[in-house]
Amino acid sequence: MARRRRGRDVDGVVLLDKPLGCSSNAALQRVRRAFDARKAGHTGSLDPLATGLLPVCLGEATKASGYLLHANKRYRVTAEVGSETATGDREGGITRESQAATPEAAEFDAVLAGFLGPQQQIPPMYSALKKDGKRLYEHARAGREVERHPRAIEVYAIECVARTAERFTLDVSVSAGTYIRTLVEDIARAWGGCAHVGALRRLGVGRLGSEHAMITLDDIEARADDPRSLDHFLHPVSTVLEDWPRLTLDGDQATAVRQGRRVPGPADSPAGGSLVCLVGENGDLYGFGVVTEAGEVAPKRLFARPQR
């Protein structure tokens, strides 16, 4: 007997405002069920204690979701001063304490300025990175502290939006792979104090941010009895790729791309290795390709259905 196909072919991006206390995977599955989508994927986990932007890709959009994993991120974080915890946030037990309060504005701004730019960061033990075949958080829960190698990150912008002796709130823009919990600890240690994350909200992923309206799980699930009524909440697949260069294909080139053949790159072709969107003359998005060293464009990921 043929296996029944589950769900429907629905393509696009849901800009979810992930709620407090919900894991990213749980949020993803709830969105997928509400839309009755065959396929879904998210673009980088948020801790259960974090809220904010979690782009959920449905259908063909999942082919582009991996590129948002490596996109820059923007956060608003509130740190509680006076203690560090095992997890780096308010979930963990206290591991270190200090009476050193948040510095006055000028000194604090100078501390923050020291964290701008490229740097090395040691990942926290409570993270999903693997060591010796296990997640770091598995080692941590077993009471083991294992060696972690520093990783290159970059802080593009950091601004204090609120400050008292007991807590401070920052807006930060960082490269992918940056742990905000570790950043908060390191900032406090720079003035001789301690701090941990009390609240964290993701404001942006790549070019996706406050200019794009987010939707809550409550709003989605309130309409789940009629999955098609949710489709107007979908952003097109091109939303994920909106800052990529585009190559418009004529009819013959579109046929060649669908057959997996290379086509000439644009006159102002970006450097070899760059990714470009492959677009038909009618504006349909066929997928994306990679620029070769010879200046041609080789198809990399093609959509089963043309997108917008």
What does this structure look like?
- With 308 residues, this protein is α+β, with helices and mostly antiparallel strands.
- The chain folds into three domains: 12-70 and 208-239, Pseudouridine synthase (2-Layer Sandwich); 73-205, Pseudouridine synthase, CATH 3.30.2350; 244-307, Archaeosine Trna-guanine Transglycosylase, Chain: A, domain 4 (Roll), CATH 2.30.130.
- 19% of the residues lie in helices and 35% in strands.
- It has seven helices and 18 strands.
- The chain has helices at residues 24-35, 62-69, 105-113, 136-141, 180-190, 217-221, 251-258, and strands at 12-18, 40-42, 50-58, 73-81, 83-85, 94-97, 117-121, 130-131, 134-135, 151-163, 167-174, 195-205, 215-216, 246-249, 263-264, 275-280, 285-291, 296-307.
- Strands 1, 2, 3, 4, 7, 10, 11, 12 and 13 form a nine-stranded mixed β-sheet that branches. Strands 14-16-17-18-15 form a five-stranded mixed β-sheet. The chain has a two-stranded antiparallel sheet with strand order 5-6.
- β16 (275-280) and β17 form a beta hairpin.
- The model has no long low-confidence stretch (mean pLDDT 90).
